[in-house]
UniProtKB/TrEMBL annotation:
Membrane disposition: Multi-pass membrane protein
InterPro entries: AA_ABC_transptr_permease_3TM (IPR010065), ArtM/GltK/GlnP/TcyL/YhdX-like (IPR043429), MetI-like (IPR000515), MetI-like_sf (IPR035906)
GO BP, one annotated term: amino acid transport
Pfam families: BPD_transp_1
Family: Belongs to the binding-protein-dependent transport system permease family.
Taxonomic superkingdom: Bacteria
Domain ABC transmembrane type-1: 22-209
Protein's recorded name: Polar amino acid ABC transporter, inner membrane subunit
Amino acid sequence: MSVLENIISIFNAHGFAFLLATRITVSITALSLIFATLIGLVFAFFKISHNKFLNRLADLYIGLIRGTPLIVQIMFLYYGISSVIVLSSFTAGAMALGIHSGAYIAEIFRGAIQSIHRGQMEAARSLGMSNALAMRRIIFPQALKRAIPPLGNQFIIGLKDSSLVAYIAVTDLFNTALSVQGENYMPFETYFVVGIYYLILVLLFTVLLNKLEARLGGGGIKGMKIA
């Protein structure tokens, strides 16, 4: 059989399994990114806080996460913490992905917030607004618009990083590809097929992010790179 015929046969034989795996990949990615965004917001505000303890706590978290491989963090949460609390592979994977992406999202939010001219905060304070109210009504909405393009790239990275949860037995796209390849002994064709699924997900994600930025008034993610 030719390579094309092998690829078609894989689609025919395992298409439904890949669709189920796609749902798991999307679910674990979405959950992890929601978690990551919440963590990122908290630690971004820690970074710009005048409280030295919060600053150092944020530096410790960001430095620790960015300084260790994601696969180590996944293994630590799934196997290392199991002596204290038992986590399912899906939960451990989502948490690890969220904690990992959260460190990068924190820096994205911090940079976006600090890019807003400080005069806007001073003007809001002169009108009688508290720091928190000025941040919520004036600073953060503008910062969010500026953060969308780098957040979009980080979200796409998070989607692709989700493939690592295959190593803790989450039946995502990559895990399914490993199983299929173990059955058919056609690694080139199998990984080509799973690559198509990931590419489609990334393209769909990019379209959604473009629409989101356009709705916020940014005009789309021009020249956004697929990281």
